[in-house]
From TrEMBL:
Keyword RNA-binding carried by entry: yes
Organism: Paucilactobacillus vaccinostercus DSM 20634
Pfam (any one): S4
Alphabetized UniProt keyword annotations: Protein biosynthesis, RNA-binding, rRNA-binding, tRNA-binding
Protein name (record): RQC P-site tRNA stabilizing factor
Alphabetized HAMAP family for the sequence: RqcP (MF_00871)
Quaternary structure and interacting proteins, as annotated: Associates with stalled 50S ribosomal subunits. Binds to RqcH, 23S rRNA and the P-site tRNA. Does not require RqcH for association with 50S subunits.
Domain RNA-binding S4 per the UniProt entry, residue ranges: 1-64
Gene3D superfamilies per UniProt: RNA-binding S4 domain
GO MF assignments: ribosomal large subunit binding; rRNA binding; tRNA binding
Family: Belongs to the RqcP family.
GO biological-process terms attached to the record: rescue of stalled ribosome
InterPro entries: RqcP (IPR025490), S4_RNA-bd (IPR002942), S4_RNA-bd_sf (IPR036986)
Protein purpose: Key component of the ribosome quality control system (RQC), a ribosome-associated complex that mediates the extraction of incompletely synthesized nascent chains from stalled ribosomes and their subsequent degradation. RqcH recruits Ala-charged tRNA, and with RqcP directs the elongation of stalled nascent chains on 50S ribosomal subunits, leading to non-templated C-terminal alanine extensions (Ala tail). The Ala tail promotes nascent chain degradation. RqcP is associated with the translocation-like movement of the peptidyl-tRNA from the A-site into the P-site.
Length: 92
């Protein structure tokens, strides 16, 4: 399945066009390699997605062409979630 479609179907990203834009900006890696929106993903792949100040590491557990909301959560597992610290904190 294409990366952008997986992100939309799994509801990690709400719109496929947004998933495509993020991937094509180089903010997503699949198994340690930069991925384009057209990259194929498979069962067991590990994705690292950078959303502004948040970075999520996700493992693909299931690939389904169409899902309902409760099924979407079963498609992946969040392995790590980290936030960049706001550089303005601590500055008076």
């Amino acid at each position: 399945m294409r990366l952008d479609k997986f992100l939309k179907v799994s509801r990690i990203i709400k719109r496929r066009s947004v998933a495509k834009e993020i991937a094509d900006q180089g903010r997503i890696t699949v198994n340690g390699r930069a991925a384009k929106s057209s990259s194929n993903v498979a069962l067991g792949d590990q994705l690292i997605i950078k959303f502004g100040n948040k970075t999520e590491t996700i493992k693909i557990n299931k690939i389904i062409e169409t899902t309902k909301k409760d099924e979407a959560e079963q498609m992946y597992e969040i392995l790590d979630e980290s936030y960049k610290e706001d550089f303005r904190k601590g500055v008076n």
